[in-house]
Amino acid sequence: MSNRLQSILLLGTTIRTNRFIPHRFTSRIWFCSGSFRNQTNMEIDDGSCEVVVGDPHLLDTKIAAMRNAGQAKLQVIADFDATLTKYRVNGSRGQSSHGLLQQENAEYDNKRRELYEYYHPLEFSPTIPIEEKTKLMEEWWGKTHALLIEGGLTYDGIRQSVADSTIAFREGVVELFEFLEERDIPVLIFSAGLADIIEEVMRQKVHKLFKNVKIVSNRMVFDDNGHLVSFKGKTIHSLNKNEHALDMAAPLHDRLGAVDGPTYENVSVKMRRNVILLGDHIGDLGMSDGLNYENRISVGFLNDNVENSLDSYCQAFDVVYLNDAPMWGVVKLVSQICPGGD
Ligand SMILES: [Mg+2]
């Protein structure tokens, strides 16, 4: 199937309907191989989303293998910023968990912005060797964290920053978490951002705790007066999201209060060898490196610069959602793998 695109509307065909999925949701799926550069005939209607599947046969094989293995073998690993959250909010670029933070003293926001302007281009420089780049990222995260401490960040400040932020979950994220929670399938949110902020975003935007969700991210330590004094453990930055994985995971509800039911110990999560991985950068694929997985279905959200990045995303991910798509397609995917239940 050379350089050919087929589109099919899946609704009502191979995927069973589910109460989590709104009836209006349809996905236009492009099965393809070869280059996408000259494809200009992609169309999208309101209420539908565009999906690119590089190798549909391989995807079907993985879905079948994971369905046969059962939901007890399944786990989901997800990046946070621009994967679970929208890339655009109300027509503008949405904020990241780092970017939304406003310190009481605006001078520190400026200092962190200056660091961003210096280091962000280095992060994506094609000429800097990876070892050097990794050191630069450690430097960047270290300086940023030091500014948060020096600037006297408080937990109340985080709460207010989240309340004032333009950050929003994709449609369908809550339903995805609920679907997985009902089936005791663990979700690992793996982020180079800040765990405390991600928790606060969930608290304010979702208003719900999920006993199956863990966050692996940089975690703050506050003193009795609510002032940030340090960070726990080793820094997770954009280039080492593959190193610490489960060993740094802490239950989401550590801060948010107890919930009923079991939590997921690292060892039992590591026994779940079938993985659905969600990310918006090719580097996010490293999130499953610590796992000796049997099957992995990788889902990429290509939010921007589609024309230039589609080839590489299609080669890297099993499924690629375009243009800030909602999460309904992933809900459908897990409902295919876990057909039992409701
Ligand atoms: Mg991201």
TrEMBL record:
The organism's taxonomic lineage, starting at the top: Eukaryota, Viridiplantae, Streptophyta, Embryophyta, Tracheophyta
A biological process term (GO) from this entry: nucleotide metabolic process
One Pfam family in the UniProt entry: UMPH-1
GO terms under cellular component: cytoplasm
Record field: catalytic activity: a ribonucleoside 5'-phosphate + H2O = a ribonucleoside + phosphate
EC annotation from Swiss-Prot or TrEMBL: 3.1.3.5
Name the record gives this protein: 5'-nucleotidase
Record's keyword annotation contains Nucleotide-binding: yes
Family membership: Belongs to the pyrimidine 5'-nucleotidase family.
GO molecular function: 5'-nucleotidase activity; magnesium ion binding; nucleotide binding
Keywords of this entry: Hydrolase, Magnesium, Metal-binding, Nucleotide metabolism, Nucleotide-binding
Top-tier EC class: hydrolase
